[in-house]
Amino acid sequence: MTNIAFLRIDDRLVHGQVIVGWLPEIKPENLVVVNDSVAEDSMRQDLMSLSVPPDVDLEFFSTSDISDEDVGESSFVLVSSPKDAWECLQKDIKPLRFNVGGMHSKDGKEEIFEALHVDDEDRKYFDLIIKSGVEPIFQPTPQNQPMPLGGIL
């Protein structure tokens, strides 16, 4: 089992809130994006790498390829869905902080809070995560008030 500094669910993955808000807050040595489609898309990887500061290593993995050996105590793991977060937890990647950021409107998703839209699959994986003893906190930016996710699901 490897403890990491931070795991965030954000369906936009690497974007302004992550770069300007969370990286200075967490101060990770590396940013690890775990997403099956991005792991196979070098153009999206190149675009994401443009905004990451040079002192932060950026790595990309699929959910099947990530392991606890690929991360460390100063890692920031970024996933796009509760399912991907669950896959990381199943690989013995344990966050000291589990953050839920933007999960935006899509067909079949219900808005339960501003910028937090879920469907039945999301609820299923959030339930598994919470039952595993991990407490996800909904907090889009470091300036927002942190809210335990279990209280708003």
Gist of the model:
The protein has 153 residues and is of the alpha/beta class. Helices cover 29% and strands 27% of the residues. It has helices at 16-26, 36-39, 42-49, 82-90, 120-131, and strands at 2-9, 30-34, 57-61, 75-79, 93-100, 110-113, 116-118, 137-138, 147-148.
Give a verbal description of the structure.
With 153 residues, this protein is of the alpha/beta class. The protein has one domain: Fructose Permease, CATH 3.40.35.10. 29% of the residues lie in helices and 27% in strands. It contains 5 helices and 9 strands; from the N terminus they run βαβααββαβββαββ. It starts with a strand and ends in a 5-residue tail after the last strand.
List keywords for this structure.
globular; 153 residues; two-stranded antiparallel sheet; Fructose Permease
Main sheet attributes: strand count, strand direction, barrel closure = 7 strands, mixed
Mean pLDDT score:
96
> Regions with pLDDT < 50 over 5+ consecutive residues?
none
User: What's the CATH class, please?
Assistant: Alpha Beta
Q: In terms of structural class, how would the helical and strand content be classed?
A: alpha/beta
Strand line-up across the major sheet: 3-2-4-1-5-8-9
Radius of gyration, in Å, reads 14 Å
User: What portion of residues belong to β-strands?
Assistant: 25-35%
Q: Which geometry do the CA atoms define?
A: globular
State the domain count.
1
Estimate percent helicity. 25-40%
Tally of strands: 9
Distance between the termini: 28 Å
CATH homologous superfamily identity: Phosphotransferase system, sorbose subfamily IIB component
CATH topology value: Fructose Permease
Q: What order do the SSEs take from the amino end to the carboxyl end, as H and E?
A: EHEHHEEHEEEHEE
Which architecture per CATH? 3-Layer(aba) Sandwich
Query: Number of DSSP helices?
Result: 5
